[in-house]
Recover the amino acids of this structure.
């Protein structure tokens, strides 16, 4: 028997890497390159989300008024973004955010959801970007208080009475909560709901005097570079090495065995560290080529998923749960990480008019809905205008979005027109005016709790028509 307890960490690594070399030698250079390309695509959402959460949670104390801060605590946006601030692109003025990064390694967390008749959702994303739970109006219902015990993939224990179990597929969880907000006058009401969202360590459950420990800031975390750029700048050795470490407590999904078996053929084993420098030179070069191929593929597919260069409204009803469609999952992460399940919200984007010409505020446009053909939703809908860079457009009405919670004026035949232009359309049409600047712009429609009519493809957003 080998006395494992007496073997050093370096010796264990040597034993593991010996197996890696043996496996790698049985694969041709061309196949190793193909597997490495697949591995890059497979790993990308995990790598990007982990990088994002490290940045969002790398604070000693909560940041007042922002939806980021130390892990295992809720952090709330308390007001809509200022149109003059250019911080985050495509922000919304429909909801206020309540976000949290959970690290479930030490112990489970208790998520408390209040009883409220106000629309809200708390989508919970694994590190793979799959939405595995969504406490909220659509799922758990209105006026229903709930306490959930959120545990990690390896946790075993007894669930205390009164708690409902939610098992996360990964150690880390990203909660991106949203609560319906009907304008600035509604802030106080929304804040009461936000303050009722609570996260409590299981060890502190039932105790009223628990104060969250001060989080230690990691100086090694790059707090300036956007997460996608951080991932893109990694070399192949860093990328695959970090991926191997993350897999140790953020395991593959149960449907991923075909992919895992492919990885094993090049010596990459779940639960083991991976050192690209230790594999044969030919295999290392194949990995580096496959890494470059995978990066180029994810970038190209991400641009498509984001609708860049596309005509008409661009959206997906396939987000939030990806199964084994690893390329699509990576593309969605690259273009718009954090996507919801389509049953909760879908965001069609538009950059061109009905003739395929780019939207430009030097022109005037109409978005026309026939009678009975308004966006089919169980919650609410809106249309927001952004400048060419994705930031909000300051205007005299201080109106960045328009939707069914506004006092819109219908036409005599029951249809509805939304006027999208820089100049006022006249007092009789001002209620339906979405102001833009005299410059290129884009639109984003938001449908909260869309109905089956939309999800099944029986309704689509109408084109925006240029008018004289």
């Amino acid at each position: 028997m080998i006395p494992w307890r007496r073997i050093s960490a370096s010796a264990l690594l040597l034993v593991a890497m010996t197996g890696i070399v043996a496996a790698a030698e049985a694969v041709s250079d061309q196949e190793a390159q193909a597997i490495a390309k697949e591995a890059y695509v497979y790993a990308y959402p995990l790598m990007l989300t982990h990088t994002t959460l490290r940045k969002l949670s790398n604070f000693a104390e909560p940041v007042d008024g922002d939806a980021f801060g130390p892990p295992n605590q809720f952090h709330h946006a308390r007001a809509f973004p200022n149109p003059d601030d250019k911080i985050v692109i495509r922000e919304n003025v429909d909801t206020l955010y309540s976000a949290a990064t959970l690290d479930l390694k030490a112990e489970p967390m208790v998520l408390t959801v209040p009883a409220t008749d106000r629309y809200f959702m708390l989508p919970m994303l694994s590190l793979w970007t799959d939405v595995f739970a969504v406490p909220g109006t659509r799922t758990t219902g209105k006026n229903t208080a709930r306490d959930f015990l959120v545990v990690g993939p390896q946790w075993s224990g007894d669930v205390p009475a009164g708690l409902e179990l939610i098992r996360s597929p990964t150690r880390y969880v990203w909660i991106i909560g949203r609560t319906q907000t009907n304008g600035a006058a509604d802030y106080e009401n929304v804040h009461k709901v936000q303050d009722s969202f609570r996260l409590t360590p299981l060890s502190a459950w039932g105790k009223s005097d628990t104060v969250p420990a001060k989080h230690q800031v990691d100086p090694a975390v790059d707090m300036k570079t956007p997460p996608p750029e951080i991932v893109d700048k990694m070399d192949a050795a860093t990328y695959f090495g970090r991926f191997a470490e993350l897999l140790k407590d953020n395991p593959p999904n149960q449907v991923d065995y075909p992919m895992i078996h492919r990885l094993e053929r090049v010596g990459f084993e779940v639960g083991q560290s991976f050192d690209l420098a230790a594999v044969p030179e030919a295999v290392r070069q194949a990995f580096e080529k496959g890494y470059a191929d995978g990066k180029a593929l994810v970038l190209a597919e991400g641009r498509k998923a984001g609708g860049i260069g596309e005509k008409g409204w661009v959206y997906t009803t396939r987000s939030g749960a990806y199964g084994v469609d690893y390329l699509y999952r990576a593309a969605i992460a690259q273009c718009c990480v954090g996507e919801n399940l389509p049953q909760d919200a879908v965001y069609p984007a538009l950059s061109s008019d009905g003739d395929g010409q780019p939207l430009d505020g030097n022109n005037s446009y109409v978005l026309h809905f026939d009678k009975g053909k308004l966006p089919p939703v169980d919650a609410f809908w809106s249309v927001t205008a952004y400048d060419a860079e994705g930031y909000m457009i300051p205007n005299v009405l201080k109106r960045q979005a328009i939707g069914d919670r506004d006092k819109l004026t219908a036409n005599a035949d029951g249809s509805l027109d939304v006027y999208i232009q820089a100049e006022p359309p006249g007092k009789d049409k001002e209620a339906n005016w979405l102001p833009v600047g005299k410059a290129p712009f884009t639109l984003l429609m938001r449908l909260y709790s869309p109905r089956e009519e939309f999800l099944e493809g029986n309704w689509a957003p109408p084109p925006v028509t240029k008018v004289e």
Remarks:
- The CA atoms of residues 169 and 254 lie 9 Å apart.
